[in-house]
Amino acid sequence: MLLCTNYTFAMTKGYQMKKVILITGARGIGLATAVHLAMLGYTVYGTTRNASDFEKILSKDDLKDKLHFINMDVRKESSVKNAIDKIIQNEGRLDVVINSAAIGVYGPAEEISLEQAKEIFDVNFFGILRVLQNALPHFRKQGHGLLINISSMAAIDPLPGTDLYSASKYAVEGLSESMAGYLSLNNIKVVLVEPGPVNTQFIAVTSVVGKRLLPDKPYGDMSQKIYNLHKEILAKGQDPTEVAKLIEEIIVSPNPNPRYQTSTAMQKIAKKYQVDPTGVQSFQEKKQFAKEVLGMGS
Ligand SMILES: NC(=O)c1ccc[n+]([C@@H]2O[C@H](COP(=O)([O-])OP(=O)(O)OC[C@H]3O[C@@H](n4cnc5c(N)ncnc54)[C@H](OP(=O)(O)O)[C@@H]3O)[C@@H](O)[C@H]2O)c1
Q1: Which pairing describes strands 145-150 and 259-261: parallel, antiparallel, or unpaired?
Q2: Atom 20 in ligand 1: residue holding the nearest Cα
Q3: Mean pLDDT over all residues of the chain?
Q4: Nearest CA to ligand 1 atom 36
Q5: How far, in Å, from the CA of 3 to the mean position of ligand 1?
Q6: CA of 100 to the centre of ligand 1 (A)
Q7: Distances (CA, A) of 291 to 70, 132, 180, 186, 283
Q8: Which atom of ligand 1 is least distant from the CA of 74?
Q9: Which of 68, 114, 245, 285 could serve as a FRET partner for 256 with CA atoms 20 to 30 Å apart?
Q10: Is pTM beyond 0.90 here?
């Protein structure tokens, strides 16, 4: 009996390990996840705007043939399409897409220029839209797929002064939750991952402050303060490999929740705001709606 269970486990593992995974934004959380999954034997494609930065990582023996870095700028439709076409060409399939690419703009909305506001939505929201529009046809053809969108606690409990960043993450949450029910009827799972502070270069390198300077400076140096505070908080944040391990759990789970917080501290905050912190209840309701009212999945 034990032998049989182990065999079944190995078969399941073996099947899992054949999965082909795309991760956009392969620095920080994306890189930790890419390396973690590749070390486990998955075939992983991490994207960046500068694949040559990653050559050193690829020299590690245990990552050879399992981890690949390819260029993708999520603001450009052709760049997203080319990257996904390349994966399909090389592997013939795409099982999991993890949307991690994002930027930050900090400060009060009034101090953020419209160009900056459009840019953050172009990357954080439209970037995900471009990726999913190119990935979903493959998921449908295969009859399965898992889409993991990295959101943020900023979409549940935004710190004051994170206005545009939070707005972009709320948009990701709305998009994901609205899709999850009806896509599940095609065996396509949509999952939100909501990290709290994670020790990456997200603030130091990837984020900026608003540059719409107001003549009377009604907010004083609030933008810089919120930026500096985030930089400090992130430096004390959780290790990105903890997020990577949670993502692994989601990938192997036959029935993942629609939504995950990445630490118990963040789960507590989410509970304060939501009576349904896992999203299961509202997911079931949406699925039912898609079936009964929209006539899907029949
Ligand atoms: N760190 C945190 O505390 C924290 C907390 C909550 C949520 N998050 C979320 O976690 C995700 C990952 O963040 P991180 O902390 O890992 O940040 P990170 O280390 O700064 O990585 C950000 C990634 O986004 C990519 N990116 C930016 N603009 C892009 C574009 N136009 N096209 C393609 N890729 C682009 C960067 O790509 P390049 O390689 O080309 O530079 C980089 O790989 C983000 O969605 C972020 O909002 C982070």
Answers
A1: unpaired
A2: 202
A3: 92
A4: 25
A5: 43
A6: 6
A7: 38, 22, 13, 12, 12
A8: 32
A9: 68
A10: yes
For the record, the structure tokens of 83 come out as 């990257």
The Cα–Cα gap between 283 and 192 comes to 12
Residue carrying structure tokens 């050879």:
64
Rounded to the nearest angstrom, the distance between the alpha carbon of 31 and the centre of ligand 1 is: 10
The residues lining ligand 1, judged by C-beta closer than 6 Å to any ligand atom, are: 24-30, 48-50, 72-75, 100-103, 123, 150, 152, 195, 197-198, 200-202, 205-206, 234, 237
Q: Which CATH class is domain 13-292?
A: alpha beta
> What would the two tokens of residue 277 be?
């912190």
Of 4-13, 158-167, 172-181, 256-265, minimum mean pLDDT range: 4-13
- Is the pLDDT at 103 greater than 80, yes or no? yes
